[in-house]
Specification:
Radius of gyration: 21 Å
CATH class of the largest domain: Alpha Beta
Distance between the termini: 25 Å
Strand content: 15-25%
CATH topology of the largest domain: Rossmann fold
Number of domains: 2
Strand order of the largest sheet: 3-19-15-16-17-18
CATH superfamily of the largest domain: LarA, N-terminal domain
Low-confidence stretches: none
Amino acid sequence: MTKVKLPYAQTFLELEVPEAQLLGILESNAHKYQPDLDQEDLVNRALDNPIDSPTLEALTENKGNIVIITSDHTRPVPSRVTMPILLERIRKGSPNARITILLATGYHRASTKEEIVFKFGEKIALEERIISHDCRDKDSLQYMGALPSQADLYLNKMALEADLLIAEGFIEPHFFAGFSGGRKSILPGIAGERTVLANHCSKFIASKNCRTGVLDGNPMHEDMLEATRRAGLSFVLNVVINAEKEVISAFAGDPFSAHTQGCEFVNKVARVKAEPADIVVTTNGGYPLDQNIYQTVKGMTAAEAAAKDGGVIIIASACNDGHGGEGFYRAFLEARNAEEVLTNALATSMQDTVPDQWESQILARVLTHHPVIVVTDQCDPKLIKDMKLLHAYSLEEALDQAYAIKGKEAKINVIPDGVSVIVNC
């Protein structure tokens, strides 16, 4: 037997797979990557040597109103490491600056006080001005014209009114934007509801270029780039992390050049070759990304890429926060099957995109080709089954279900962290 540790919530599960049936353990080399410096020194080196940009200290000089965009509670950005360094350098350049930390919630709910403390630590959570973006608050938004797709661009006024706008984030493979980080801090991060919905329309989601690891010809990415230009984002700090959510590389400077170099690094360490399997076992990388079914779709897409057509996907994900989106949930609850959900999504125009439609569309796409078993002891099984998914309390139970579908000799791929890899078959 081969034993594999799989991240689950804030702990791990152990999977045992017969060696004769194991095709591969598909892991990003980011998890094995040995940086030459510790986390803080990696961040400081990147900030000391910004890409195509003056230093942060030079940019902040004489700036009175500075906004730092950062990810919300759904993203494992190591802000406990990065934010203190950013704040120190900003105050070195502009000691009297009024600094606002703007949480790029996109279309998510606001972060709770507890989640903010977990993300930043108590000192920053208590002492700094931290505000959650609200995409539905029209009074907080400003219209910025039409994007290349002709979608209307609305952005957070607080960001637009800043004397200096910077962003921190992390870069990983993303299941329809190609990669996270960079321009995603703006769109969807601080965009209005109408803009987010249009950017996540069914036409874009169905595009063969809106896939993990793809930027060239990705229409969603192209709108994001233009939104970033119009927002006036001046500087980014984007890090790459390993399975322990530790910084292994950092890229700072121009929002476009720095992000591009970061994506090139991630592409090298995250791309894996796979032979399609009868069964694929994966996760959503543990906390915070496995808090709900909505986010868990990301890990499913990696398994989708590593499975034969009709292969069974098993994903260990706590989903302790439930479905993660009411529209997402109801799309499946009220449909006869996944095929109906997919048909409904594809028939919806950009202007008529509804909340969570994109996640429904991708999950439906996966389910039309693969049975999916969600392994969790922290979520109501009825809710999971309402969404046309199968449920198991343990990996062993899930494997028994998968063997019943594909046979006891079924070949298996294991992806310990489904959100960290780019799978090529």
